[in-house]
Protein: Glutamyl-tRNA(Gln) amidotransferase subunit A mitochondrial
Organism: Fasciola hepatica
Amino acid sequence: MGGTNHSSFCYVHSLLLTVGILSDSGAYVLGKTNLDEFAMGCGSTDSAIAGPVINPWSSRQTKPVRSPVIAGGSSGGSAAAVAAGLCPVALASDTGGSSRIPAAYCGVVGLKPTYGLLSRHGLIPLTNSLDVPAVIGASVADVSAVLATWIDSTHQPATLFDGTRVPLDPVQLGRYRTILLELSSGSVPLKPPALQIGIPIEYHVPGLDPNVAKVWDQVAGWFADELKYPICLVRMPHTPMATSVYSVLCATEVASNMARYDGLRYGHSVPTGTMPQIQNSTESRFARARSEGFNSVVRGRILAGNYFLLRSQAGRHLEAARRLWRLVKQDFDDAFKQVDVLLTPVAPGPATPLDQFLRLDNRTRTTLDDVCTVGVNLAGIAAVVVPISLSPENGLPIGLQLIGPAHSEPQLLQLAMWLERRSAFTPLVDWNSLLSDLESNFSREDL
């Protein structure tokens, strides 16, 4: 949920409201996970603290054998921890796919909630207008249980809504929580209610792995043949522009949010007396503190954001991005007038080998990997990722994404639970067996 390579940036997890809610409900906080610096990345390879996050499925990869592959980003450490069996659930954030891509790459469940459903209080901001706390779990039931515990519209309202979205009222919130608790306990009907499923034509992106496309078609067939759901193609013509819109909006808000890290109150501080006298000015100290305190990806986004915010450039870039943002959102609004749920890939392919991923610059990597995920953030709606199968080419997980309108999480999670059981995906760690063993050997007081 944020972090960098200097001890002065160390994050106190108790400040995060969602962590406090879980702790108060009896959850144990096991530790912090690795991620891209300040959550700026899509591979969890840009952390200077512990290096790249290695996907636990690397040991199962068949081609090339045992070559390290990425865990996805920016919340790759959270997904890797769940996949490796270190914990049943992990917290994450999602600004453009940061929880969903790692979930797909690591073969676990990832939920990006509706913007404004959960408080962002304590979340280190990347892009305030898009950031949401997210959850990654070993199963849909685990994710549902965490979400049911998280929901509380009375906490820190300034970090919930931006004035353009309508919150759930107390009655809706209570009904919402009840459904989630039923999902977490498995007491809801296995077959979801009748839904119409949409397949966005534009999500068949250039470079889509044939194995991902095959799984996409297979799951659409399950919905049609076994649940008797109507399947229809929908047009979302502004999808190809979404990553460009995201890049401009993200950079401009990063430039603003990172301004606080000047080495005085926040961020890396340059000790007095370590600079030549001729450079010992306030401006020079700021420049050195930010140069040493940020990696190249963060510095690059700050520079790009400040450029987009120049009076001479704002109309050309920022205002254009805002206009296109509305069009991307309108695509989803129009789609949900025709269908109830969208079924899409999460990324063009399974996890990429680490050495191959590192050959590309951050901007190129983000453009390639986030094409199927950023639109959900721009629209402020809900999405859940479910692992389906392993690629026959390299043995790595392939997941798909279910997208629904704002506040459709109960409906999405019920459908995701059916899909989870239908796919019968075999994880690296069987948590049901693991928990049974733990319960038979330890009492709660012993843990």
The longest strand covers residues 382-390. Residues 165 and 212 are 34 Å apart (CA to CA). The chain has a mean pLDDT of 87. The domain at 7-235+333-446 is CATH 3.90.1300.10 (Amidase signature (AS) enzymes).
